[in-house]
Design a protein that fits this description.
With 265 residues, this protein is α+β, with helices and mostly antiparallel strands. It has two domains: 177 residues, Topoisomerase II, domain 5, CATH 3.90.199; 47 residues, no CATH class. The chain has eight helices and eleven strands. The strands form five sheets. A three-stranded antiparallel sheet has the order 1-3-2. Helix 3 packs across helix 4 and helix 4 packs across helix 5. The longest helix is centred in the first third of the chain and has 21 residues. It is globular and about 90 Å long. The N and C termini lie far apart (93 Å). 21% of the residues are buried.
Length: 265
């Protein structure tokens, strides 16, 4: 006489096991290496293209480009509260008001694309700018002249599909070299030194005329610069900077020049 299964559950388990042959794949298996290649590269590409690294065509990171585009839409010749500029930019930049506010201040401190009013901080001392509701800005005449041209601008839809934004701006000036940039993305980083405005104009004329030229970094904080290992700004190039500090007496120092990227504090 055959023994009966101890329980219905045990009997059903034996029936399930009998359905599969030895060596048969029961579940789909995803290779971790393939998942890493697909997902990591998608994430890295997003960070590089949408967040951290500027486009060589106009020298702007996405947040900077969206700020300038929003300010152009608002432009009537008068100053606008930075808080208002941030709100307008959030229609195009979905990464929070703090990052937009910091980017506006950074653009304003370079004194090239934005005219500003109020306490915008100090790049030499490291003092921060006042709150966005207290400071004001508008596009400079230089920006209005060289940055925008809707007839030759390529457009794309904003992140929510409600507005159009430029993929790049048709800048008629080497803005990337003028402002300099530092960005850390996934798997790569970039650091381009700022350059002198007049020297960039002279270099641009030399390029158009097919002439040779030399171009080296120049810094708003002054100081001496050793460019013997600069390597034309290519990978591995280095520069050395020196500050100028004058000692008046035991209690007083005058700091006239500081290395770029540092502050007196």
């Amino acid at each position: 006489m055959e023994a009966e299964p101890d329980s219905p559950a045990e009997a059903s388990g034996e029936e399930e096991e009998s359905k599969f042959a030895p060596g048969e794949v029961i579940h789909d298996v995803n290779n971790v290496r393939g998942m890493y290649q697909n997902w990591f590269l998608d994430y890295a590409s997003y960070v590089i293209l949408e967040r951290a690294v500027p486009a060589v065509e106009d020298g702007l990171k996405p947040v900077q480009r969206r700020i300038l585009h929003a300010m152009k839409e608002m432009d009537d010749g008068r100053l606008n509260k930075v808080a208002n500029i941030i709100g307008q930019t959030m229609q195009y930049h979905p990464h929070g008001d703090a990052s937009i506010g910091d980017a506006v201040v950074n653009l304003g401190q370079k004194d090239l694309l934005i005219d500003h009013q109020g306490n915008w901080g100090n790049v030499a001392t490291g003092d921060s700018a006042a709150a966005p509701r207290y400071i004001e800005a508008r596009l400079s005449k230089f920006a209005l002249e060289v940055v925008f041209n809707p007839d030759i601008t390529d457009w794309q839809m904003s992140y929510d599909g409600r507005k159009r934004e430029p993929t790049t701006l048709p800048v008629k000036f080497p803005l990337l070299l003028a402002q300099g940039v530092e960005g850390i993305a996934v798997g790569l980083s970039t650091k381009i030194m700022p350059h002198n405005f007049r020297e960039l104009c002279q270099a641009s004329i030399a390029v158009l005329r097919g002439r040779e030229f030399q171009l080296y970094p120049d810094f708003p904080t002054g100081g001496l610069c050793d460019i013997s290992n600069y390597q034309s700004g290519q990978r591995g190039g280095k520069i050395r900077l020196r500050a100028t500090i004058e000692k008046i007496d035991k209690t007083l120092l005058i700091i006239r020049d500081i290395p770029y990227g540092t502050t007196t504090t």
